[in-house]
Amino acid sequence: MSAAAPVETSFRVTPRAAAQVAEIATREGKPGGGLRLAVDAGGCSGFQYRFAIEETPAEDDLVIQEGPARVFVDPVSLELLAGAELDWTEALIGAHFAVKNPQAVSACGCGTSFSVG
């Protein structure tokens, strides 16, 4: 399978998040790029989400396509994101990407750190 080919997965990207990915990639001079979403060990609760705009996916990345936007996820992170949804949230405290992850049994107030059961 080609690294750039869209992949069907139980991880979902909302249209609102996809629009922000495309807008941010263009603003950062990487039109056609994508958002890297990774799960790293660390944070207050055991795992934390990491976001970055990248021009191309890594060779072993899965590419989730939503409209013109792409999200790059490595296979290990995808296991921790199964059934999750990436959304864009706007609130008084600011706008940011939010992951609604059914595997997360607890999260800390920062919204980027979680633990699994």
Count of the domains: 1
The CATH architecture comes to: Sandwich
Instruction: Write down the CATH class.
Output: Mainly Beta
CATH homologous group name: HesB-like domain
Q: How much strand content do the residues show?
A: 35-45%
**Uncertain residue ranges:** 1-8
From the structure provided, what is the oligomeric state, counting identical versus distinct chains?
Answer: single chain
What structural class is derived from the secondary structure elements? alpha+beta
Determine the CATH topology.
Answer: Hypothetical Protein Aq_1857, Chain: A
Number of helical segments with 4 or more residues: 2
Helix content: 10-25%
User: Mean pLDDT across all residues, rounded?
Assistant: 84
Strand order of the largest sheet: 4-5-2-3-9-8
Shape annotation: globular
Question: Topology, please?
Answer:
Layout (H helix, E strand, L loop, with lengths): L11 E2 L1 H13 L6 E8 L5 E8 L7 E5 L2 E5 L1 H6 L4 E7 L2 E7 L3 E4 L5 E4 L1
Parallel strand pairs: 1-6, 2-5
Antiparallel strand pairs: 2-3, 3-9, 4-5, 6-7, 8-9
Overall description:
By secondary structure, the protein is α+β, with helices and mostly antiparallel strands. It has one domain: Sandwich (Hypothetical Protein Aq_1857, Chain: A). Helices cover 16% and strands 43% of the residues. The chain has 2 helices and 9 strands. It has helices at 15-27, 75-80; strands at residues 12-13, 34-41, 47-54, 62-66, 69-73, 85-91, 94-100, 104-107, 113-116. It has a 6-stranded mixed sheet. A 3-stranded mixed sheet has the order 1-6-7. The termini are far apart. Mean pLDDT is 84; it is low at 1-8.
